[in-house]
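Protein Entry — a single chain follows
Fields — amino acid sequence, structure tokens
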Amino acid sequence: MKSFSNFRIVLNPHKTNAQTVRKQIETYLKKHDKQVICSDQAVDQEDLVISLGGDGTLLKAARSLKNPDVPILGINLGNLGFLADISAQKIETCLDQIICGNYYLEPRTQLTTGKNLQALNDVVIASGKTFRVIQMLVFIDDHFFSEIVGDGFIISTPTGSTAYSLSVGGPIVYPTMEVIILNAISPHMLSLRPLIVPGKSTIKIQICSDLASVVIDGQISENLSKGSTINITQSPHKVKLLKIKGMEYFNLLRSKLRLGDLKARRICEDCDQRFDCPYPKLPI
């Protein structure tokens, strides 16, 4: 596996222990004769980016890349940490594995709106500041799909299938698949369900309401006026997430989302509480 020499750290300064962990990483890497810089902007010669925060920090780091071949390692200082899946307690063990070459790169598709904006998770059409239902027309490869009346519409990557889309009833999609997930937010109809389309599809949204907005990965937004259209396609550039061998996706689903974790749902006959549950006394 490739040996990395130049590391860039992207951190969330609002995390209480961010600076402490940053210094720990810098000290470790410099002991191994590695170059380290802390910057939100891409720098020349960088060959690995370390995201230090939560999933939002990793999404920001992905947008900062100038070279899509530079991988990202996510260190979690937040709560869930689904993309940034390495805990702060395991940083040095993780860096040991990377230096020894015990890692793999997982390519993740992105979406683009054609304005040099990349979305690793999702593109969301929302009602903006009005908090009223919005109306839009959705086309797939120039074929009319549906009229949407509701709170919004999510166009998601497989990576984003465990984010906003999941919270409104969308499917979990294996992250390396070449597909796009379409999911309405609180639609004012009973017949509309999530839809998975090929990754090469072009999704065109035509706004029929007076005001709406497009939101990229929950972090960047732009207003859309009535009659405007926006085209969402799969980006030609993929994000490469660095993963440590042995940390498989299905283990992550069980540990972070409790998917299929029977132990978490098993009732203790003695105390009538869920076994191994971080929220005791919570009913099933």
Remarks:
- The first helix runs from residue 18 to 31.
- The domain at 6-109+238-263 is CATH 3.40.50.10330 (Rossmann fold).
